[in-house]
Each structure stands twice: as C-alpha cells, then as structure tokens.
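Take a look at my tokenised protein here and describe the backbone shape.
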Amino acid sequence: MKKLALFQIIIIISFLRPFICDAKSSQKHNPIVIPLNDWASQRVLSKVVGKLYQQLGIPVSYQDIKVENQWGALKRGIVHIQIEVWQPSMSEVFNQYVKKLYILDLGTHEAKVREEWWYPLFVETLCPGLPHWQSLNACAGIFRVKGSKQKGVYHSGPWFYSDADLIRALKLDFVVEEHSDDKELTNKLLTAVASNKPIILLNWAPNWTDTRLKGKFIEFPEFSPECETNPQWGINKKLVKDCGNIKEGWLKKAAWPSLKKYNQCAYNLLKKISLNTKMISEAAALVVVDGLSEEQAADVWLEKFSVESKGWMLGVCSGNR
C-alpha cells in the first residue's frame, strides 16, 4: 500500500510540474504598461526600460498620460511603473500616495535634480545682476512681450508649481505664460536663442541644456519647508512661498503596489536601475538637439550606457526571487 501511495504521489507531481513551471513562467510574461509623460528624458528613458523588459521576454505597452493623472493610474494598475518622480514638483502627492500604500517607492536614483527659473547665459549681458533674484524687477522690461501689460514674462509648463505665489510673495514684476509641454518650452527657448532675444523660463536639471546650451538658474531665497507653511519665516512676513525650490532634490522610481506579485522580474529590474546626471541629460539631448525619434534615442542610449544597463539586467529573473 505504501508503494502504491508513493507511486500515486509521483504520478501526481509529474502531472502538475508543467503547470507549476508554466505559472512561474507566465508571471515573467505578464505585460507591463509604462506611462509616457510630457518631457523628453522621461519618454526616452521609459522606452529604454521597455526595451530592457522586452529583452527579458516581458511584453510592454505605453500609455500617454499627464503627471496629475498617473498617480491614480499607478494605484489601480492601469500603468505599472514610473521611472522619473521629481521631488520639487511631485513630492507632495508622491509622499501621500506612498504613505497610504497606494503606490510603491522603489528607490532613489543617483542623480540630484533641480527645477527653477532659468535663462541662457547671454542674458547676463543685458541684466548684469543675474542670477540673483533681486535683479529681476530692474530687468523685467527685457522680458516683456506684446500683451504682457508691461510686465516681464516667465514661461512655464503644465506641471504644478507655485510660480504665481512666488511672484506675489517676492513682489516680482512678472506674469506667467503656461505652455502645454516641454516641446513648446524648448521651441520658445531655441527661437529666443537664435535671435539673441532675452528669455526666462522653467528649466530643470538634469536636462539637455546641461551639455548643449549654457545657462543659469535664478537664485531665489533658499528653500525651507517653513517657507511653504509659515508666513513669518521668510522675507515676506504676510505670505508663504517666498523662496525658491529645492536645489538638490531626489529623483525616485514608483510602481503599482502589486507589481512584485504581478511580475517579479519587472519589479527587480526597476529596483536595480539607478540613473545619473549624464544618463538623464543625454536621454533628453538625443531627441531635443540631435533630432532622433524616441525609439531611436532609446537604442542609441542603450549603446552609450551598455555597461550600466547590462549590469542592471544581471540576475533579475534568477530563481524568480
């Protein structure tokens, strides 16, 4: 009887083994949906991650989505990962979602980031007091455009910043002109540079300007968390937001909370990826300056940083741990 029972167990295990293996293998092949936001480095690096996933045999699709809409999509698993979460503009909602376990914090990149008012270097010849913010009002006239009511124009994007609050708190003689994405901002900048026309606009680092166009950030009063909540903290004793943004912010990765269970390999790879300043600025420059498509830029990027990307891939699916 014992021999018969043992024989039956062996038969059952032999029968189930293909299904167990298939279950583990199918997890590796669960498709990953990657969001595409509206700035160049994020789109290129998302395609880079997608290509790495595909090398692992993981199907990938992409979803164009605004930053403000991606958090709920990550929470619900409509999209599965985010390769660039910037502290200056996204930390508030990111931290809230992580705290509530709506999304996962999958680690911090090597690169430090900054998002702030910026100008091409030639502007200093027309406004010698730059980059100090106190010189902005004296030079506001060179940034005026038709319809700006004699005020200087600061060009911004569709992302959440407190520029209007900053202008009000520091009593700057400026108005904000918002553009739909980084392409519009870039076109404004390149047009101004080509005609040697002064411009001041939102920029960030790492970005293509790090290596392809010299410029500087405006140096506002140093950031402090109290600046955002306590009117008594800064220069303006009645209003908050009288300071600049964080100068060396973090850049993080985020994921759908169930990603590890859904696709262990995808989860492991995202945790291992760490981007430095050069990697991010080059991703943007390949599209903005060199004129490559996002797909082409991702391929060139993978060639340039093949040592790093191959290192990230090592062992991410080993034993499916």
The chain has two domains: 30-112+249-320, 114-228. Confidence is low (pLDDT under 50) at residues 1-26.
